[in-house]
Amino acid sequence: MENKLKIGIIGLGTVGTGVVKVLQDFPEIEIIGACVKNTSKKRSVEVNFLTDDPFVIANHPEIDIVVEVAGGVNPMRDVLKTAIKNKKHIVTANKELLAKHGAELFDLANEHNVVILYEAAVAGGIPIISPIKNALRANKFTRVAGILNGTTNYILTKMEQDQISYNECLTRAQELGYAETDPTGDVEGFDTMYKIATLANIVFGKRIDVNKIYREGITNISDDDIKHAEDLGYKIKLIGLAQLDGDSLDIRVHPMLIPVENVISLIDNALNAVQLEGTPVGQIMFTGPGAGEFPTASSVVGDILAIKSEIKTSDYILPLTRCNHHEYANQLNILDTKSCYYISINAENRVGTIGLIGSVCAKNSINLSNIVQKGIKQDGTAQVIVVTEIASERDMQNALTELKEKGIVINNLIRAM
Amino acid sequence: MENKLKIGIIGLGTVGTGVVKVLQDFPEIEIIGACVKNTSKKRSVEVNFLTDDPFVIANHPEIDIVVEVAGGVNPMRDVLKTAIKNKKHIVTANKELLAKHGAELFDLANEHNVVILYEAAVAGGIPIISPIKNALRANKFTRVAGILNGTTNYILTKMEQDQISYNECLTRAQELGYAETDPTGDVEGFDTMYKIATLANIVFGKRIDVNKIYREGITNISDDDIKHAEDLGYKIKLIGLAQLDGDSLDIRVHPMLIPVENVISLIDNALNAVQLEGTPVGQIMFTGPGAGEFPTASSVVGDILAIKSEIKTSDYILPLTRCNHHEYANQLNILDTKSCYYISINAENRVGTIGLIGSVCAKNSINLSNIVQKGIKQDGTAQVIVVTEIASERDMQNALTELKEKGIVINNLIRAM
Lengths: 417, 417
Hints:
Two copies of one chain form a homodimer.
Chain A: E1 5-10, H1 14-23, E2 29-35, E3 50-51, H2 54-59, E4 65-68, H3 76-85, E5 89-92, H4 95-111, E6 116-117, H5 129-133, E7 140-147, H6 150-162, H7 166-175, H8 184-187, H9 190-204, E8 214-215, H10 223-231, E9 234-245, E10 248-259, E11 271-279, E12 282-289, H11 293-311, E13 338-348, H12 353-363, E14 368-376, E15 381-388, E16 391-392, H13 393-405, E17 409-416
Parallel strand pairs in A: 1-2, 1-4, 2-3, 4-5, 5-6, 8-10, 10-17
Antiparallel strand pairs in A: 7-9, 7-11, 9-10, 11-12, 13-15, 13-16, 13-17, 14-15
Helix pairs in contact in A: 1-11, 3-4, 4-9, 6-7, 12-13
């Protein structure tokens, strides 16, 4: 048994508990100890020793791999730096830490000849990091887009299926444990932003400045928007998107209208999905559970076993698991991107309103593909839904300003795929 | 440049040509020569030397990897055995050879310390073999099901969308080059059978006897069946399925009705898809192009680069790329499997027919979930569509025999997911 791989776990919440349970089937992995917030709390799994100090794990002489499933930047940034300096490999699900301080951590890991694996940080149980680095390594990618947050996908699905409001869905999701008491990280798109940054990093081989990513959440999506989108043949999903535009990278997070012909529109409830486009492969999509105790543990334990299969035979670690790129991507400002747009408008119900909308758009080089009047509201205004062809965000923002100046109320602007 | 990896290619058809084109971006890989049927034919790619004898490639002293994209059992079985004995690694897309003689080839490869990689053999450009062996390695799988043949999926999609017959679709697919002049391998399910055998082999870690796989193609699917299925909320797809039933393996190939809520029902045209179910991951699905010059080259070149990244640093080859299981799966006879069923029936249009169908099914322990009379045909018979709950194939075959004895004409029996 001298060949056992020894791990320490930081965090015994949902994912950490799942990891301990799954590892019961892998006697070649020994859990030395775990760090938890409350060492006296009763738990469904047993671990040799518990500590409430993560540095005890990071400094423990017997531990080969630190499994970090606690999340957050502080103190995990310093904890993992300590572990790396102690020549421990890292397996982490911490997308926020990777998105904000990945560059520093990967450099340090290279310096100390250890690896950081993070399959669980993006899309939970769906294998995506490893396929990009392995089976798809012959490809140059042009685009990655995904439904990367299960909570918001659940809310949007329920809004559509049960025709209820965002707030009602959020409450229900909170009651079911799908959304947290403070749902900001999910519903404002932060979680998706960290994940698309982590994905874009490996898909395009460039470092990403997470502060430059345009981000919009789902709190402004109304049940009306969902219904109008449906009538026009779309579903609304919160999308993390990163695509090449020449030498620049267009990376952003916002709700999108997805045509129902696109398979990603059909990924409902808490499921995640990632679409990749590249040469030579073309377009492929992976879908599955993006969170949860066991799916996430599948990815964490997969990473642990990947390290084990390497270090048991030699001191050589897969070069592919390193992060060797140092150049930052040239990230586009949202105003320099292009999209199709859905615009929900309230306008005075008089002759010429639709013509006005059309002429303001035309003046700003925006072609309309669809314009529908949705009837008269109680206040006498007419609701008009416009869908545009592909247009520049700058032109679109100029058109919106002009429409507002002319007394037209913009209920919502949602980009479309 | 002493570190260049040297390959020989057998087959310069669509896939082989794609591989040569893609490798132009990888100067670390050198193509020594290629084997083709006709060495004087004009080609869109250039290779150092051409031969029409595959053994020249298998015996060439400079070649490190033999890339076999010619297909077929003869002479490739002997060619690859020769190459392996010459200590060459193999990258192949030959699902028929792997399904029929994989055991022999993998044993020989282990003996000679070389690997056989075959990502391109199943689902073209979709990474599936490598994710199962790598990111998903913590899982015990219970089920794999897939749309594994693009030609038949194209035909079924067109039959549905354009409401035309199988024969009309086949002709169109042949004109477009999606189907071969002799379409047997695709439309009778042989191609899907080889692929599900290859998949089941690694998903369940057991050898598969391809001769014991139940197989049905799509030639009996009528435009009526497709329409009736649609009315009931299903699409018809040709499915390769392998699932555990206790210690036995239920592995088969046949058309299936898929509920439209199941994402796999929406994988249309020439796309492929693979659904996996396991613990701890749950259910995941991969979809993308299952064939074609460039998607398939993505997988072939991915395998070549995987071998390169291993052998450039040491003489150690990934243990995961070996095939170390020797036990054969206990494959169920189709009569011992269970499914839901769709039955299209022609019966005399008289009182009691539906009652008769119901009572014969009930007598054979088959519960019906749906029974619809589809109107009277010109010959005076009534068409009745029955969908059952899950039932045993043996019971179902007994019920069909009994119904036929009572003068009822069975147009088609299609299993449902």
